[in-house]
Design a protein that fits this description.
single chain; alpha/beta; two-stranded antiparallel ribbon; 11 helices; 13 strands; binds pyridoxal-5'-phosphate
Length: about 375
C-alpha cells in the first residue's frame, strides 16, 4: 500500500510482535497484586543491570528523574556546575537546575555530540559532574571524557536515554561513568508503555542513595532517613520492559540494517547521517540528516506521506526557561546549526525496505543537504 503514511516510529507494529508475552506479563502482575516495588521491579532491575554490565540498576519514574536523582546521589547540589553538550534534550539541564546546580554548556562537533576538545576549558573549581549524552543512539567519546574527569576529580553521569544496548569496544554504554541515566519513554530503543527510567551504576553506595531518594527516603517503611520523593518505576512497566529487553539486541540490529539502507540510498544525493567509526557504537534511536529550509522540508515530506521528526528546534540556552542566563545566540554555533537543520527520518524495528525507499525518494525530491557550518 504505497500511499499509506509512514510514521516516524511505529509502536503498534512493535506491540503486535510481542502482544502475547506482554499480556501474560501484565496478567502476572495483576495476579501477584504488587504494583509498587516488589519482585517484578527487582526482576527487571537485575536483568537490566546484567545486560548493561553493572552491579546495580534502580528503576525510577522517568529519564528526567533518573538524571536528577543520580546527580543528587553523586552529591551535586546548590551552586555546583554540571557540564553537558549544548545540543541535547532539555531534561539534562533541568535535572541540574531542579537541584540548584548550574548547567554549563559545551558546543558540539559536526557529529552533534559534545566536542571533547572544548571540555577542559569549561571546567572550573565549581564543576562537580560531566554529563556526556549518547545522542541519537551514538556513543560519546567516553575515553576522553573519563580521562579528563579523572584528572580534575569530577564525576561522570552518562545520559543513555537514546542509546540502550550500544557498546564501545565490547562494553555497553552506561557502564563507563560513575553512574548512567536511562529513559524508557515509549519511543526509545527500550520503551515502556508509559513513563519510566532507571539509574545504573557499579557503586552500590550510590545505588542505595538513589533507592532512598526514589522512595521518600525510606529503607524501612515509615522510617524516612533523608528527604526523598515518590518516583518509583511501577511493576507493570517493569514487567513489560523485561519482555521487551529480550528483543532489544535484535531490534537494534534491524535499526542498523535500516540505517545502512538509508545511507546507500541517500549518499548519492549528498545526504549523510551522522555515523560512528565503531559500528556497535550506534543503535540509531534516530536517523538524522540535515537540510536547508528544514521546516519547509518537514512540511513537504508530510505532504508526501512521510512523517519526519524535529528534536531540539531551539537549543537549551535559547529556551525561555533560561532567559535569565542571558546567553546570546551565536554562543554555541554548532549546536545552533544542528537545531536549525536537523530532522530525523522514520526509524523503527520492522520498517520495510519499501518504506525506506519511499522515504529516501521523498527526501531527495524535496530537500537540499545543509553544509557544515
Ligand atoms: C528522552 C530523553 C530524556 C528524558 O527522558 P524522560 O523519560 O522523557 O523523562 C533525557 N535525556 C535524553 C537525551 C532523552 O532523549
Amino acid at each position: 500500500m504505497a500511499s499509506q503514511r509512514i510514521p516516524l516510529c511505529d509502536l503498534a507494529a512493535q506491540h503486535a510482535e510481542i502482544k502475547n508475552e506482554v499480556d501474560a506479563a501484565i496478567a502476572g502482575v495483576i495476579a501477584g497484586g504488587q504494583y509498587v516495588l516488589g519482585p517484578e521491579l527487582e526482576a527487571f532491575e537485575s536483568a537490566f543491570a546484567r545486560y548493561i554490565g553493572v552491579s546495580d540498576c534502580v528503576g525510577v519514574g522517568s529519564g528526567t528523574a533518573a538524571l536528577k536523582l543520580a546527580l543528587q546521589a553523586l552529591g551535586v547540589g546548590r551552586g555546583d556546575e554540571v557540564i553537558m553538550p549544548a545540543n541535547t534534550y532539555i531534561s539534562c539541564a533541568f535535572a541540574a537546575s531542579q537541584i540548584g546546580a548550574v548547567p554549563i554548556f559545551v558546543d558540539v562537533s559536526d557529529d552533534h555530540l559534545m566536542d571533547v576538545g572544548r571540555l577542559e576549558s569549561a571546567i572550573t573549581d565549581r564543576t562537580r559532574a560531566i554529563m556526556p549524552v549518547h545522542l541519537y543512539g551514538m556513543a560519546a567519546d567516553m575515553d576522553s571524557v573519563m580521562r579528563i574527569a579523572r584528572r580534575y576529580g569530577v564525576k561522570v553521569l552518562e545520559d543513555v536515554s537514546q542509546a540502550h544496548g550500544a557498546a564501545l569496544s565490547g562494553r555497553r554504554l552506561g557502564a563507563f561513568g560513575d553512574a548512567a541515566a536511562f529513559s524508557f519513554y515509549p519511543s526509545k530503543n527500550l520503551g515502556a508503555y508509559g513513563d519510566a527510567g532507571a539509574v545504573c551504576t557499579n557503586d552500590s553506595y550510590l545505588a542505595e542513595r538513589v533507592r532512598l531518594l526514589r522512595n521518600l527516603g525510606q529503607r524501612h517503611k515509615n522510617e524516612h532517613e533523608i528527604v526523598g520523593e515518590n518516583c518509583r518505576l511501577d511493576a507493570l512497566q517493569a514487567a513489560i520492559l523485561r519482555v521487551k529487553l529480550r528483543r532489544l539486541d535484535a531490534w537494534n540490529e534491524t535499526r542498523r540494517a535500516a540505517a545502512s539502507r538509508y545511507d546507500e540510498l541517500l549518499a548519492p544525493a549528498g545526504f549523510r547521517s551522522v555515523r560512528h567509526h565503531s559500528p556497535q557504537a550506534h543503535v540509531y534511536y534516530l536517523y538524522v540528516v540535515q537540510a536547508c529550509e528544514r521546516d519547509r522540508t518537514v512540511a513537504d515530506l508530510a505532504a508526501r506521506g512521510v512523517q519526519a521528526g524535529v528534536n531540539h528546534p531551539t537549543p537549551i540556552h535559547l529556551q525561555p526557561a533560561y532567559r535569565a542566563r542571558a546567553i546570546p545566540s551565536g554562543t554555541y554555533p554548532k549546536a545552533e546549526w544542528a537545531a536549525r537543520t536537523a530532522l530525523s527520518l522514520p526509524m523503527f524495528p520492522g520498517i520495510s525496505e519499501e518504506q525506506i525507499a519511499r522515504v529516501a525518494t521523498a527526501l531527495i525530491e524535496c530537500a537540499t543537504p545543509a553544509q557544515p557550518q
